[in-house]
Amino acid sequence: xxxxxxxxxxxxxxxxxxxxxxxxxxxxxxxxxxxxxxxxxxxxxxxxxxxxxxxxxxxxxxxxxxxxxxxxxxxxxxxxxxxxxxxxxxxxxxxxxxxxxxxxxxxxxxxxxxxxxxxxxxxxxxxxxxxxxxxxxxxxxxxxxxxxxxxxxxxxxxxxxxxxxxxxxxxxxxxxxxxx
Length: 180
Description:
Radius of gyration: 18 Å
Order of helices and strands: EHHHEHEHEEHHEE
Structural class: alpha/beta
Shape: elongated
Strand content: 15-25%
């Protein structure tokens, strides 16, 4: 299963003194046989994953010494190193600054558009969902309330129903949701 599905949790405890490189390399474990060591191919995959998340420069730093955003990018790099066909993300941009948020979500979007990756993500930022998702599911009280194309689901009525807030929806090149 771990060869197919990678998970990026909202939060992850890091109690051991692994380096960022070691944590990212853990994404390759599903691809190794029993008692098999990583080959140079695995190393190149890990390096590519770290470069794509801007974490290569952190490779020798202890995960416990990194900021929240740096840790999150390393966890995302580990998921990319896994080379899954399904990526599950729970608030993947938590603790990330805006430039890293856009960089990582754009990379995920490119992988998805190439057909190499199916992505299911939880976002609480409706504008990020509108920008990067093609389909949206709004849930309320543990059940699905709305499901469909993002530009149809993210509307004033649905947002008011699920979140209890008034919005202004601007449609143009990108859907933009302003909370009133």
